Fold this protein.
Amino acid sequence: MTNLKITATIATAVILSFTAFSCNENKSSKETTMDNTMMKSGEMSTTDAQSTSAKQIVADYITIKDALVATNKDEAAKAGLAMETALNNFDMSTYTEQQQKTLKDIIVDAKEHAEHISMSEIEHQREHFKALSKDVTDMIAITGADSKVYEMSCPMYDGGSNWLSSSKEVQNPYYGEKMIDCGKMEKELN
């Protein structure tokens, strides 16, 4: 049964890849019909599958960041648990073999940090958030981001630390209310 599922998944990915590569800028009505049929049968197109998975991981990360800004350990813990689940369900099948290898390494590391965030005190959550920030930044480099994401930096926390934000406004998750505006925007990722 498992081999059948793997074979069906691979066949679907090959068909979707062939369709994507054979398209010009405009889809023909035949390709649009195929996409719509697959969507109705419960399958997602390649682009939608990537966007949804990466989008959820970034959303969970931003929720953790916001909870740390507010020094809310319980909300950070809930978001860490949600992110761990999203990472476990991340579908890499549409990426190249090399991208999949890199993503697997990132996900293993990110899951460990999300797990620690889900069950730790606030200072320990912040320590793991620093490493998680690098993981999510590396993931976005491969998957892209559906919306604007800004890389921020704080020169004071642990010899210098970065984080990602959905806003250009500096809200430091490492110090929370103690030093909320410590840091600066480094660059926009997309």
Summary: The first helix runs from residue 2 to 22. DSSP finds six helices and three strands in the chain. Helices lie at 2-22, 29-40, 46-69, 73-88, 97-118, 122-143. The first strand starts at residue 149 and ends at 154.
